[in-house]
Amino acid sequence: MKKQGAKEKLRRLVAPLLGVAGQGGSSLAFKAFTSIRPRISLRFEGIGVTLRDGTVILDSVNGHFSHSKVVAIMGPSGAGKSTLLYALMGTARYGATRGRLWINGREMRLARLRRILGYVPQDDIVHEDLTVRENLSYSAKLRCMATEGRAYLSDVVDDVIELLGLRHVQHSVVGSVEKRGMWVSCCSGGQRKRVNIGLELVARPSVLFMDEPTSGLDATAATDILASLRRMADLGMNIVTVIHQPRYSVFSLFHEVLLLGKAGRTAFQGASSAALPYFVSIGFELPSNENPADFFLDIVSGCVPCHANPDFKPEVGPFCLFAEFQIVHPEKSL
């Protein structure tokens, strides 16, 4: 009974928005989304996280995330990809955090801008007993300004539903893995993942951090989501995504990539299209029919020989990946 009461309370909260919900066609023209303001660019230096037992998770990571771009953070397991997001947000409370952060050129903590910061966790946080539209409407009502009218918020929800390709399931219950086999109208796992992303998009954040939003999705669904994120970047949103072993067609949709090696050190940051030429220039050869994104991860894991230096080791020595990147790109290693 208690759970049923909570469910009804949620429904009453979002009901006014549902009453004026747009029922238009499949046009991709936005109703409410306009240019993202303010536009936020981040620059950081020396970001590090050390656990209480002395284990270093991140070691002096430098980089920048610019507005109007979708950036991929890649690296092998344990490289500190998610920890970097937590450190920048000020939520890495499980260890000692160090480093400096500039927001549009002004040094400050990102936590001060929490209202314009979005975060999509790896695990879904949807209300499984509500429909897709109810979930998004509830989030819009909680996250948006009180002065924004219900008609406008409904248009925002419509925009997100259209953007994420959820129009045909907007009135379906999101459900869960357990309920999916029992309810005919339950959403699939991929649709549920899109709803999870939509919960943040309705808030129209200036900066959106995402932790493996495409995990568990097939390549086509992952490509669709990245294409949607690029549309938001075109409006000025700064989108940073942790991603694990994407196919190359997905990898190519990112504007830039930050590649972390073991112990959380920067092995490369730059345009996604520049990653392969960079590694070739320092002595690595891409095997035939190899996914370049997998190739990069193999390099930082020490699984690929360097033809220019047979004694190459990714983490130590004068020709380690981290030292080499500082030599080739000193402006990105300050």
UniProtKB/TrEMBL annotation:
Q: Does the keyword Methyltransferase apply?
A: no
What's its membrane topology? Multi-pass membrane protein
- Gene Ontology cellular component terms for the protein in this record: membrane
Ordered alphabetically, the record's keywords are: ATP-binding, Hydrolase, Membrane, Nucleotide-binding, Transmembrane, Transmembrane helix, Transport
Gene3D superfamilies linked: P-loop containing nucleotide triphosphate hydrolases (3.40.50.300)
Localization in the cell = Membrane
Cite the InterPro entries for this sequence. Answer: AAA+_ATPase (IPR003593), ABC_transporter-like_ATP-bd (IPR003439), ABC_transporter-like_CS (IPR017871), ABCG_dom (IPR043926), ABCG_transporters (IPR050352), P-loop_NTPase (IPR027417)
Name of the protein in its database record: P-loop containing nucleoside triphosphate hydrolase protein
Q: Which organism is it from?
A: Coccomyxa subellipsoidea (strain C-169) (Green microalga)
Record domain ABC transporter: where: 42-288
Pfam families xref list: ABC2_membrane_7, ABC_tran
Return the PROSITE patterns for the record.
ABC_TRANSPORTER_1 (PS00211), ABC_TRANSPORTER_2 (PS50893)
Q: The organism sits in which domain of life?
A: Eukaryota
Q: Which GO terms describe its molecular function?
A: ABC-type transporter activity; ATP binding; ATP hydrolysis activity
Q: Which family does it belong to?
A: Belongs to the ABC transporter superfamily. ABCG family. Eye pigment precursor importer (TC 3.A.1.204) subfamily.
